Amino acid sequence: MTLALFLALSLLVGASAFIQGAVGIGFALIMAPIFGFVDATYLPVTLLILMLPLNFLVAWREREAIDRPGASWITVGRFFGTFLGMAVLVALSVRQLEIAVGLLTILAAVIALLSPPFTPRPSASLGVGLFTGVTETATGIGGPPLALLYQHAPGPVLRSTVATCFLVGEAISLVILMIAGRIGQAQLLGALYLIPAVLVGSWLSRHVHAHINGPKLRLAVLIFSIVSGAALVLKG
């Protein structure tokens, strides 16, 4: 990783962490296509590692608002979805992974934009957890289905519950990926270099999250994700 690339990625990682800390989604949607452009071998491991401290800090900051029953059902589905996601990851080449990340980014963002309001139920939480386990383990992207589930909940509930589910799910995925021998030194070093940017972005979001215009920022993130996902599909 050159110095110029490190500085550019640090800026983007910090901005993405700020957005997710303020809104509840955005980090993986922004960074997965970017990592795909830079070097798809960073996916999903580097992305998953970077999200661990981010989601821990967000979940802890608003821990009293966590929807614990919903998070429990999501985690059950997430556990079983992890094994399906591992199978997808093993089956894909780097170029196919780029295309998969791009397509899943577009699909998830479009669904989040167009979906009507609904009340989360245990069956929906279980299904979202299963789907998230597949997509996040294979590509690092799992936020939009969770955000979709809680998009009409108060901001603290969305941010804290999504962050909690991410935190547990990412730990599960990383353990499975480690057992499968899919974690390499380059991926670990990439995450190590960029963790300070995650901490800075998360810290900044802590001071403004209550004042951010969430819907407009969320819309901008999703539109950016659709554009970047389409570009990544063309590259792949």
Topology, pairings included?
Layout: H1 3-23, H2 27-39, H3 45-61, H4 68-91, H5 94-114, H6 122-139, H7 143-149, H8 155-179, H9 185-206, H10 214-235
Helix pairs in contact: 1-2, 1-9, 2-5, 2-10, 3-8, 3-9, 4-6, 4-8, 5-7, 5-10, 6-7, 6-8
Q: Can you walk through the features of this model?
A:
- There is one protein chain.
- This protein has 236 residues and is mostly helical.
- It has one domain (3-235).
- Helices cover 81% and strands 0% of the residues.
- The chain has ten helices and no strands.
- α5 (94-114) runs antiparallel to α10 (214-235).
- The longest helix is centred in the last third of the chain and has 25 residues, at 155-179.
- It is globular, with a radius of gyration of 16 Å.
Mean pLDDT: 86
The ordered string of helix (H) and strand (E) elements is: HHHHHHHHHH
Helix share, percent = over 70%
* Total DSSP helices: 10
Number of strands: 0
Low confidence ranges: none
Overall 3D geometry? globular
**Number of structurally distinct domains:** 1
Beta-strand residue fraction: under 5%
Biggest β-sheet strands, sense, barrel: none
Assembly category: single chain
Rg, nearest Å: 16 Å
Gap from first CA to last CA: 21 Å
Structural class, by secondary structure, is: mainly alpha
Keywords for this entry:
10 helices, 0% strand, globular, mainly alpha, 236 residues
Q: How would you summarize what this structure contains?
A:
Helix content is 81%, strand content 0%. The chain has helices spanning 3-23, 27-39, 45-61, 68-91, 94-114, 122-139, 143-149, 155-179, 185-206, 214-235.
